[in-house]
Amino acid sequence: MSRFFLPGPTEVGHEVLAAMTRPMIGHRGSEMSEILAGCDPVLRAIFRTERPVYVASSSATGLMEGAVRNGVRRRALALTNGAFSERFRDLVADCGREVETYEVDWGEAHEPEELHRRLRAGGFDAVTFAHSETSTGVLNPLRDLAEAVRTAEGETGDEILLLVDGVTSVGGSLVEMDAWGLDFLLTGSQKAMALPPGLAFGAASERMMARAATLTGRGQYFDLLEYDRYWRKHQTPTTPALSLVYALAEQARRIDAEGVEARAARHDAMRERCLRWAAERGERWGLSAYAPAGRRSPTVTTLAVDGPVAAPEIVARLKRAGWTIGGGYGKLRDTTIRIGHMGDHTVEGLDALLAATEEVLG
Ligand SMILES: *Cc1c(COP(=O)(O)O)cnc(C)c1O
């Protein structure tokens, strides 16, 4: 059973790793197209969309940049509440666009009413944020935030694209790209998809593709129009990370066999298990949920540590006992720990980790 509970990269199944040892094939041949065509319906089921899901050979940050280059015309509102949403914000400026920040403290979520108020002032053509902020374990209320964007669009007449970092939500929860009206949704292979690092997946709405066609400076590597042109042949614009695509094909089969709804339910159960453990057993070690109730990620639980054993020491003791969890991220390093319960992990596996944690805490 896995003892590896980092919030990314996550444990990868043996069959998936084994698939990567297959010999190389030509990436413009029919065999390659068949492999990608086989992955496509599963990826669209995971993204809850009828739109194409593009496969990029990069880490997730690559498609965050792609989102900006293809989706922000002049000025974006960036919602920040942790390290990854801050990275998204910084990327907007790096790509030469104006950006205004709607910042809330690390550990907090954004409010749809406040988002609406800020957008109503006008002048924004895109919004960026992280659905599940992996640095804090906060889950933003995506459906309500999306609705606030749509309402503001109606009032201002601005076309405001919603660009969502779903890196630790897609594949671990039901992120309804079509039903919630998201314009760009992206994830990386090494989080809830339980693949090795190195691939990123992204889907764009039709209106985002229409906007992209009018933007200059989309660059080469993340030009969504090129991705779309090649997607129609079930290919990628440049040589894909072939071994990772083999792994994807295998993992797509496994995800399809479980079903995306069952997969989401399993993640919800792991979150609840982790939170209940902290509530019932954590007090004597000063452990408590860091994110506010109702705003807790299904894939990563951040626990505030204010007790006899300091946060980095908990991580170190588990490490010595053969278990890996995530330390606090950045400025939360000394005061929190993070348990990644995503990908192929199970409630039973998580129980074993929690028991081991009690043991090392003494
Ligand atoms: C891990 C992560 C990223 C960055 O992913 P890379 O694959 O390292 O580029 C971005 N956003 C979130 C929410 C993440 O968890």
UniProtKB/TrEMBL annotation:
Keyword annotations of the record: Aminotransferase, Pyridoxal phosphate, Transferase
Enzyme class, first EC level, given as a word: transferase
InterPro entries the UniProt entry points to: Aminotrans_V_dom, PyrdxlP-dep_Trfase, PyrdxlP-dep_Trfase_major, PyrdxlP-dep_Trfase_small, SP_NH2Trfase/AEP_transaminase
Residues recorded with modification N6-(pyridoxal phosphate)lysine: 191
An example Gene Ontology biological process: glycine biosynthetic process, by transamination of glyoxylate
Protein name: Serine--glyoxylate aminotransferase
Sequence positions that bind substrate: 338
Protein family per UniProt: Belongs to the class-V pyridoxal-phosphate-dependent aminotransferase family.
Cofactor(s) of this protein: pyridoxal 5'-phosphate
GO molecular function terms listed in the Swiss-Prot or TrEMBL record: alanine-glyoxylate transaminase activity; L-serine-glyoxylate transaminase activity; L-serine-pyruvate transaminase activity
Residues of the Aminotransferase class V domain: 90-278
EC annotation from Swiss-Prot or TrEMBL: 2.6.1.45
